[in-house]
Amino acid sequence: RLAPPLTEKEKAELLSLARAWGNVYKPGYPPYHLSNLNGRIRADRERLKAITARAARTEQAEASGGVLIEGDDWIRVTFAERPAYPIIDALKAAGFMWMKGSWIGKRDALPETVRGDQP
Question: What's the whole-number mean pLDDT along residues 97-108?
Answer without folding.
Answer: 90
